Amino acid sequence: MKTRMMVWMGILTAVAVVPSVQAWSYNPEPFTIAEKGGGSMYTQMAGDFVVWQDAMDMVWRGYGLTARESFLIATSGAMGMVMNESYAVWSNMSMTSWSGYELATKRRFTLPISDVDSMSVRLTGPYLVYRDMMDMILHGVDLESGEVFDITTEEIDSMSIRAAGDYVIWRTMMTPMVLEGYQISAREIFLISDEEMIDSMGLAMNDRFVAWTQAPADPAEAGLFGYDLSNRETFLISSSVMGTMTLKIGGNYTVWQDMMSQGLYGFDCVSRELFEIASGNVDGMSLIVNEGYAVWRDTMNMRLYGFDFTEQRLIETGAENIYTPALSGSILFWYFTDIDTMVSEVRGFDLATGIEFTVASLSQAGMIAPLAEGDYVVWTDTDPEMMDTQLLGARIWKIPNDQCADAVEVTAGTAYEGDSTQAAGTDLTDCGVNDSKDVWFAFRPTVGGEYTIDAHSDAFDTTLAAFAACGGAQTACNDDANLQTTDSQLVMTLTKGKRYLFRVAGLDGSGGPYELTVWGGSCKTPLKADLTDDCQVNLEDFAVFAGQWLDCGLEPAELCQP
């Protein structure tokens, strides 16, 4: 473990950590989840885990994306597997008993439930929601404590049950059919809407909002409505009854397709503003929505399009795709196939930057659509030698300063954090052996003088070099600042306004999380006549002096003598 240099100890806590974005490199780090039997259509992904049914022995397995390890979850008797970022639950072969598995701790446990309506099972956080087939009560189970509690005793539509965050919602079956909600932490039930003809199939929710259509006898009361769960407030989204099979919620936004015009519309549930996303030719079944973007396939040219909610901007990706794509953050993933060249790949497109990149080559297009979560994407491929389906994955390292031309601009006194694990590059310096994984920074002093540049990492042995220009020779280089550390440090006299390049790399091709900080900007010998703060007295200082000759800054002005 590396030790931080003493010069950092007393002052680093006052340093602001600020991201800086210019251009980006996308460097996939591929890995194998399952060598064979990975083609199950029941493959699921949430948080840091992938769960799938092995197509060979029919057992259920899990894989930790960060730890890069697989583990057995359940034997071949497991049915109806449901998972979220923390737990997996399933029924056993007899359908009368249920089991659970805590993914992080690899703890298998028996659930105190039976006679479960499998169509009603939902997971949200540490809670399982289900309807009992015997008493017809909607129950909840705290998977951490094992507590079973009643949610509602009313007869409800199992297909209408939704759960997200701290809330569960449903539509009742008995007249009047109302839309109700339940806050798990408060163990409290509340009414959302008592209007008739609520479309339970199109009902959408996340942990903040609910959206639905209703078509009561009075047309004046029809429309698309929303509900703020935290404020317990109903609001009108649109007075027109839309086709709600495509109704989705991501973050603050509700998105749906108009069945008449085939156009796509959005609504900001916070500002309560309606906006058009696309005028037509939308394949509603391909629609994906998250907190920042909507993505869909055009029915005319089969290309994927995106929409940036924040910037209210339509994005044409240029990607042609017949499979359902995957979306994580701003990055879209899909299977690419060129029939003429016989090239098949998993590709990515960053909706934020407009950059397309290749994730991995494919022997043939995957059997299931790709899955994506966080920095990871998962897909299937067929091993031509084994003639079996592999389950594969990759972490996408999005690096803003992988190339010298994309150097991130830094300012004095600010710590810049990054990760060079998957950085590219070549051995460019002579103060370290094979310090090939590099990232680049640029600094333009506003004040001339002596500066200290520090490169720190707890993960690898850093090297630090200075350059005057990309492709030029190094002007300074350091491996270890002293015998007590493997951090790197340069002390240099820099000229005001001149641009300097700093390269952070790792000994023996190593990389990982790091910090770069530039300190200083003070003159060794302060000069009273240095009016431009560049540690020298010259004509620039005289120009400042001459420009203010005989000026007076006294208050009141009468104190100034002519």
How would you describe the overall organization of this protein?
By secondary structure, the protein is mostly beta strands. Among the domains are: 6-12 and 401-522, Jelly Rolls, CATH 2.60.120.380; 112-241, Tricorn protease N-terminal domain (Neuraminidase, 6 Propeller). 2% of the residues lie in helices and 47% in strands. The protein is built from 2 helices and 45 strands. Strands 37-39-44-41-42 form a 5-stranded mixed β-sheet, with no helix packed on it. Strands 1-36-35-34 form a 4-stranded antiparallel β-sheet, with no helix packed on it. Strands 2-3-4-5 form a 4-stranded antiparallel β-sheet, with no helix packed on it. Strand 4 (60-64) and strand 5 form a beta hairpin. It starts with 5 loop residues before the first helix and ends in a 15-residue tail after the last helix.
Task: Please write out the topology.
Blueprint: H1 6-9, E1 25-34, E2 44-46, E3 49-53, E4 60-64, E5 69-74, E6 79-83, E7 87-91, E8 98-102, E9 107-111, E10 122-124, E11 127-131, E12 138-142, E13 148-152, E14 162-164, E15 167-171, E16 179-183, E17 188-193, E18 204-205, E19 209-214, E20 223-228, E21 233-238, E22 243-250, E23 253-257, E24 264-268, E25 273-278, E26 282-289, E27 293-298, E28 303-308, E29 313-320, E30 326-328, E31 331-338, E32 343-350, E33 355-361, E34 371-373, E35 376-383, E36 388-399, E37 408-410, E38 416-419, E39 438-443, E40 449-456, E41 462-467, E42 474-478, E43 488-494, E44 500-506, E45 513-522, H2 539-547
Parallel strand pairs: 37-39
Antiparallel strand pairs: 1-36, 2-3, 3-4, 4-5, 6-7, 7-8, 8-9, 10-11, 11-12, 12-13, 14-15, 15-16, 16-17, 18-19, 19-20, 20-21, 22-23, 23-24, 24-25, 26-27, 27-28, 28-29, 30-31, 31-32, 32-33, 34-35, 35-36, 38-45, 39-44, 40-43, 40-45, 41-42, 41-44
